[in-house]
Every structure is written in structure tokens, then in C-alpha cells.
Amino acid sequence: MKKIIIKQAHVVNEGSIRVLDVLISNQRIEKIATGIDVAGAEEIRAEGLYLLPGMIDDQVHFREPGLTHKADIRSESAAAVAGGITSFMEMPNTIPNTLTIDLLEQKYAIAALSSAANFSFYMGISEDNCEEALRIDNSRVCGITDDGLYFNNNHGIMANHPKFLEDLFSRSDAMIALHSEDDAIIEKNLAYYQSLYGNDIPVKYHAAIRSEEACLSATQRVLDICRKHGNRLHFFHVSTAAEAALFDNHCNVRHKRITAEACVHHLWFSDEDYGSRGSLIKWNPAVKSNKDRNGLIEGLISNRIDFIATDHAPHTWSEKMKTYTEAASGGPLVQHALPALLELHHRKVFTLEQVVEKTSHHVAEAYCMIDRGYIREGYYADLVLADLSSSWKVDQQNILYKCGWSPFIGQVFGSKILMTFVSGHKAYAFGKHFPEKQGLRLEFEKDRL
Length: 449
Prior knowledge:
CATH architecture of the largest domain: Alpha-Beta Barrel
Oligomer: single chain
Mean pLDDT: 96
């Protein structure tokens, strides 16, 4: 493989920004220094550009197998690398649900042939497959989760089943990642609004139905159980300021037993946007108030919330345009997540160093990933070259999601992703994909404790 030198880039890494050369060889970063010259190497001139470790997204729904009318691993991973995401971890709510190790390995086999980005897949867990879920190999599987699944045949998520959680937490040595909302509170709120509007509830009430109380109640319940056992627990898509205040910031992420994430849509939108965006910003948990958005931002800055994810969950346009109770929750985000966070940097919400920390460094640390998440000699070359002074507008012609729409349609971003390297391979450059090589299966430290 031909060596590549990225010359004179502003390298954003581990709390600093320095002008450096980066030499890529055999999937990895061979050298970082000033003035690297190697005969026969491809040189990429990067003066005035910024080199970041690729974003690691720990929560995506790429819909394959079984739901490929919405998305598939090939289409969404291509959108991801165009947006500067070099690695993803994908959810088990495909069809069939990923509730056996055989089904889990089938997804890995699909990705090995089609994924533009590095990949891992969660093992799903429900009422009936606990023994199977506990058999996963921690060194080769990111974790176990209930996200997107029903706990049993009726309804509900695991946060509402404390006896099961007690048993699971007492036995698991894996990363357990959970969706946390209180079903009973949501059902009560929904019944109230249905009494007023039937099924055609104005979408602006989504935040009142899937309320702060519903989130806070479930998160506190799960925290109380987990803290008795001390195992590894991660909270997906925290959406309220009240929840953010529950988490600790006393140590580095690698040594935390409990971690939490915020998602891009909760950092960008608020309930004031339902009027213009409608069900396009209907997610579970709901986009909530400006107070909550600001609380999540403060939680990230204070390290109570550890990193940022997308919860990329595409649906077709027709699935989103139904009445409130039937409109699907979720939306596509991987192509626009990092540009949106760089825009928040331009607005002085986050520093560049914080963006990198919260999209790459901390994700790698929380999941105990091997040789990912930093620009370091010997690490995999998962890199993003960005122009922070190049504006572009999200429109129908440049959207890469299979579903064909974005909640950011019409948004002008002030930064552009120019090139993305995935495990040393140039996967995307200046609007063109290079699909001749696929991403690699992510590896983790076996001991998450």
C-alpha cells in the first residue's frame, strides 16, 4: 500500500492544536512530526485545514437486515464517512431482532463486505435471551442493549423492569447500554393528549408526552440499581438538564463505571422548532426545551455527559408524514452530525478540542477500544480533513441517505468535510467515495471492569 503524508495540517488532538505532518502506512499512523518526507509517498497539502480523529458514533440504526427500504449498511456508512464518521456501533432492532449470536455474526458478515466505515454491532437483550446475551465476546462486540427493542411481547423497555435489571447487572461483565424513559408516565401523558386531539395530536406536544419527568424517573431508577453492582452502564441519548445533573464528573472516562451521551439533535433543536420542522424532529426521547439543550451543553463541558452520538434512525418520508401517533420517531443524522458540531464551534458553544474529545477520544475510552480515537503513532489512521472556512447548504441534491431527506434541509454550515480516512484507506475525498476497501471490525479490551 502506498504511503500517504498529510502535510502541514492543524492537528486537533488531545487538547491541543499543532501544525504537523502525519504519515499513514499500512492502515496506521506511522509518524507524526514536522517536515516528514518519504520518497514515493502521496502528499496531501493541508495548509490552513484541520485534521481531526474521525468521529466514533456509538448509536446508529442502519436498518439491515429486514428494513432496507429505509436504509442499509452500504448507503448509511457511505453517508457517515462523507460526514466525517469513521466508526459506528449499530443497534439490534433490525428484522429479525439481533437476539442470538448467530444473527449478530450475520450482521458482521454483511458489514465486512459493504461498510465504508469501521463497525461494531450490539447484541440485543430482552426478557427471553439473557443467557445468550451474556455469552458475547467483549473483545469483539461493543456491548448489549435494549434500544429499539421491546422487553417482552407486549411493550416496554428494560428501564421499567427493575427486577430484571438487578439480575442483569449482578451477572454481566459487558458494556450495558440503555434507553431510559418511564413507560407508565408516557402512556398517561399520551392518553391525556389523545383525549383532547385523538390521534392527530400536534407534534409540538411530543416533548410534553415524552416528558422530563418520564426521562428523569427512569434514569434515576436505573442509576440506583446499577450503583449497587458497579458494572459498566451507558445511557444513550440523555435529553434533559435534570438527567445531566445526575452524573459524576470526578474522574476520566476510562475509569467511569457509568457514562452518558447527548445526541446532536438534542444539542441543535429545541421544542421551538416543532412549528417549522414538525415530525422531522420527532425522536424518542423527545427534543425538549432550550433549558434542556443548554443543560446538555453544560453537562458536556463539565464532563458529566461524556460524549456525543447521533442516534441516526432513518425512516421514509411517508413514514414521517403520518399523524402524530403513527409518525415514526427518528431521523437521519450521520452525514451532518460533525458539520453541525463544527457549526456550534463557530458559534463558540464548543472549542475544537472539545468537539474532538466528545466525538472521538471519550467514545474510545468509554468502550475500551483498541488503537482508535486519537491521532497517535501506531494507532489506526481514522482521520478527517476539514475546511473550517468553507460554507455549503444542505439540499436535496447533496443528501446521501437512502431515505432522501434530512432535518437539516436548508441549513448552511460553515465547515466542510474534505477527506475521510478509514483505517488508513482514503474512503472519501472531495465529494467522491472510494469503495474498493471496507472498514474493519472494531476491537475492544476484553475486561470492561
